[in-house]
Amino acid sequence: MSFQNPVFIPGPTNIPEKLRKACDMPTIDHRSPLFGSILHPARAGVAKVLKTKAAEIFIFPASGTGGWETALTNTLSSGDKILAARNGMFSHRWIDMCERHGLDVEIVETPWGQGIPADRYDEILTADRGHQIKAVLATHNETATGVKSDITAIRKALDAADHPALLFVDGVSSIGSMDFRMDEWGVDVAVTGSQKGFMLPAGLAIVGFSPKAMDAVSSAGLPRTFFDVRDMQAGYANNAYPYTPSVGLMNGLNEACTMLLNEGLENVFARHTRIANGVRAAVDAWGLELCAASPDLYSDTVSAIRTPEGFNATEIVTHAAETYGVAFGVGLGEVAGKVFRIGHLGSLTDVMALSGLATAEMCMADLGLDIKLGSGVAVAQEFYRTKPALTHLDAA
Ligand SMILES: *Cc1c(COP(=O)(O)O)cnc(C)c1O
Prior knowledge:
This protein is an alpha/beta fold. It is 41% helix and 14% strand. It is globular and about 60 Å long.
């Protein structure tokens, strides 16, 4: 790997210079008011990025996986029934976590490459007249397959069935990069991490709890200590933490929110859509297909690209790392060896995206695939040239 090259994995993402500097801090006393001057603006910034006025924001020294655990253990009890679709590795892992916590998961098995079937959620919720289902899980952007799901359709399914279950959304690879509206969509727990849309190193689990989710905390029976939001809340009230916070990362988070909000969230989303469209145009020019089954499902943060039958897609990733010092994402789980992934989220420009496409072409040509050098790059160039970026992230 070369530190000169950007990474094209769908997280951790490239860290802007400004954020590296913001994370690099001298030690401060995390029980002093100075810490409060980092903590509270960071939480306020996250609330804006989540588009919530109602939610409580909690920031744990953990990763996105810790955010999943925060959602479950603070609101549910052993044996509670959960509804979840499995359509990729990340939804699979969250389901696995539910099962390990003794929750009873009704799994909607969904082909990898498809989105969450809201119509199945609707049927199941409507049939659940006794309201046994306590929470509905939704992975907004399945990072393994590059598939986005429609959270509003799931909210509608809950409302149509007049069902009181909590709605938990994994937005780890969408929040801060793709449209996300916690309050408007009626999300009860939103989960993300520091190392994707927020462009920071891994190390923070970031969650938002709606008032309804907060109401569930006192009666939830699952054991929790590290991830107990009540301890966090009590700490925050005193400018403090129940244990030692990652101060530097939180200072970075504060700055990351400022960068995103200065660019304007709608502009950030438009930039991601535009860059993704250029990548998708290149994939099409290569004669390859995305794992995502239809355009409405295309993720603006990661593309999982199917390689021809009989070819091991992981070779592209290995070859790119060894030969060109560039990181792409491997296929995971059911699609291991069948897809490679180009991450296109976070701190990225057209020019950076073009370098990734050019590298992918060199790798595929080196490995004997029928790819004409420059074919994908040319259509992406044409796309970026005629649809120039309206805004840029102020990364310096
Ligand atoms: C990366 C990711 C996670 C896991 O986050 P970690 O920070 O690795 O624990 C969960 N869900 C999705 C959709 C992800 O992309």
